[in-house]
Amino acid sequence: MIRTNAATALKDEASRLAGQHLRVLLGDADRSRALVFELDDLRLDMSRQKIGAETLPLLLDLA
Fold it and tell me: Residue 27 is part of which domain span?
């Protein structure tokens, strides 16, 4: 049941983001802070993906 709720929430988030152009998302000044992660020499920049900061917890719930 939890997995179904997580999948549904993630689908809802995808639907919400589907209507937004990436150019608009990139205009958010806080986006880089929320979606760029660094650990030692590793840098993970997810800011150019069509996700939001709200998407990450939903992905973790699904995992």
Answer: 2-62
